[in-house]
Write a structure and sequence with these properties.
The complex is a heterodimer of chains A (94) and B (144). By secondary structure, chain A is of the alpha+beta class. Chain A is 40% helix and 27% strand. The two termini of chain B are 44 Å apart. Chain B is 43% helix and 17% strand. Chain B is of the alpha+beta class and 144 residues long. The chains are: A alpha+beta (94), B alpha+beta (144).
Chain lengths: 94, 144
């Protein structure tokens, strides 16, 4: 099942200055994302069908779009943390 | 915290310190209060090395030394990304290969078959990379 990230948590801190943190509930963008992807899927299906009828060897735009959605979904669980002398960056994708 | 503040004000009232010294002390007290609590390193909960048996789920990159870097990437992302390369149109893939070659990475993704991806992922479970730099940095990459 393709399930895009639920929450993206970004925390940036420069030494000697205030920290900056965004806890972004990506889930609120899901409805918009699904509408856009749904529309793109219809277009890609029509394009692939046209390519099939035209005898083209490449007709994978729909699979490419679904693959891109899979990449987005598989980002869940990513953690990046950089702690240097001057900067601290923390990224969590849930 | 308010105890420290009261003590400083008390010292000022007793004439033990001047108003300027009290101000410096209070500023120092406030700035120390602004230091955020240290965030627990995610690597504290990570496995210590490659998984023995079973399919690895994450790739871990740990850099220790002057700078500390912890990266945890789901292997599903790698798997999907590699499979996606087989769907990219040939012209676009040729351009990608060319750009990567210019950047010093001569990898021809045209030769990568989707059926090979699972073998690559499974083999990563046995992989462990340890790099000890001259400047004392230590880089460790493994999958678990």
């Amino acid at each position: 099942m393709i399930l895009p990230p639920l929450v993206i948590d970004v925390h940036v801190r420069e030494r000697g200055s205030r920290s900056f943190r965004i806890w972004f509930p990506f889930v609120v963008l899901w409805p918009l994302l699904f509408i856009l992807v749904g529309f793109a899927l219809v277009v890609s299906l029509v394009v692939d069908l046209a390519l099939l009828l035209a005898g083209s060897r490449y007709r994978h735009y729909t699979r490419l779009l679904l693959g891109a959605m899979h990449v987005l979904a598989d980002l869940r669980g990513t953690q990046v943390r950089v702690d240097s002398a001057t900067t601290f960056v923390n990224l969590d994708i849930y | 915290m308010s105890g420290d503040r009261t003590r400083i004000l008390g010292m000022l009232a007793d004439g033990k310190i001047t108003a300027a010294e009290a101000e410096t002390l209070l500023d120092a007290l406030e700035s120390s209060a602004e230091v955020p609590a240290p965030v627990k390193a995610p690597s504290a909960d990570w496995p210590s090395g490659p998984s023995e048996g079973g399919t690895p789920k994450f790739m871990y990159v740990k850099v220790t030394g002057e700078d500390k870097v912890d990266v945890k990437i789901p292997l599903a992302l790698l798997r999907t990304g590699l499979k996606l390369t087989s769907l990219i149109p040939k012209q676009a893939m040729d351009q990608i290969n060319e750009s990567m070659s210019e950047a010093g990475m001569s990898i021809d993704f045209n030769n990568l078959k989707p059926e090979d991806v699972e073998d690559i992922i499974a083999s990563l479970g046995e992989m462990e990379v340890n790099v000890e730099a001259k400047d004392g940095d230590h880089v460790r990459v493994f999958c678990a």
